[in-house]
Amino acid sequence: MIKTKLLLLGECEQGKSTLANFLSETVAETGQPKTYKPTQGCRIVEFEVKDLKLKSGRKVSCEVEMWDVSGDPRFSGGWPAIAKDTSGIVFVYRTDTNLNAKEMEGWYNNFADKQGLADKQCVIFGNNIDGRTIEPNIPYKMNKIRCTVIDLNNDPEGVRSEFDKFLTDVCISTDEARDSEELKLIN
Ligand SMILES: Nc1nc2c(ncn2[C@@H]2O[C@H](COP(=O)(O)OP(=O)(O)OP(=O)(O)O)[C@@H](O)[C@H]2O)c(=O)[nH]1
Ligand SMILES: [Mg+2]
Question: How far does the signal peptide extend, from start to end residue (predicted)?
Answer without folding.
Answer: none
